Amino acid sequence: MSSDITSKVESENKSFVSDVVDIMGSSDDDDTKKSKILNRKKTHDGMVSKAFGDDNVFSSYKKKVDAKIQPFKWKYKMASLVF
User: Fold this and answer.
1) Does the residue 35 lie in any domain?
2) Pairwise pLDDT comparison (27 vs 78), residue with the higher score
3) How confident is the model at residue 2 (pLDDT cuts 50, 70, 90)?
4) 57, 20, 55: which is closest to 38 by C-alpha?
5) Which residue range(s) make up the domain with 29?
């Protein structure tokens, strides 16, 4: 993976996590939080997919990320929305 792609993906991932943490810490009700997180996830997936430029590479990336975060999905129900 080129350093340009790596840089774009890392930047978007940091922004994504920051945004999700902010949403979770907000005073919004749970339904609003879920909606905001799902909307941010769609934006994130689109930006990361565009950075990779290849659906197969993006799919492989998502599978690897999913495997790494599986323990969080079990422990934190809201994490299953994000990933």
Assistant:
1) yes
2) 27
3) confident
4) 20
5) 3-76
